[in-house]
């Protein structure tokens, strides 16, 4: 009985953080703030839901898998968010008007390797048309 109550509280908490992640993706003005809110909130939401599964199950094997899943998310999601933000910066994704500073602006960006102009396009490429060389 107590395990079910704790698991229910954890699921509600996880669902709340997952909802805030989804809401942040919709409401934030640029790619950088969207990535920030989605990676932080989603990691916490998934962690709480996995913990709820472990608490409700009570088995050692489920606990081990849940802890491994939480560790996996905590290690990979922030790194993936950073990589996506860096890629967005390199292809020229604009920051929102309220952004106060751009530490890489005077240094040519986060990488010294220039990005080809073909990767800067955002329009869809027709697969039937051969690229012009």
Keywords:
mainly alpha, 3 helices, 133 residues
Summed over residues and divided by their number, the pLDDT gives a mean of: 82
DSSP helical segment count: 3
Shape: elongated
- The oligomerization state is single chain
| Total count of strands | 0
Written as H for each helix and E for each strand, in order along the chain, the element string is: HHH
- Which residue ranges are poorly predicted, with pLDDT under 50 across at least 5 consecutive positions? none
Biggest sheet character = none
Beginning-to-end CA distance, first to last residue: 68 Å
Radius of gyration: 20 Å
Q: By helix and strand content, what is the structural category? A: mainly alpha
Query: Helicity level, as a percent range?
Result: 55-70%
Strand content: under 5%
Descriptive report:
- Helices cover 63% and strands 0% of the residues.
- The protein is elongated.
- The chain has a domain at 2-93.
- It has 3 helices and no strands.
- The protein is an all-alpha fold.
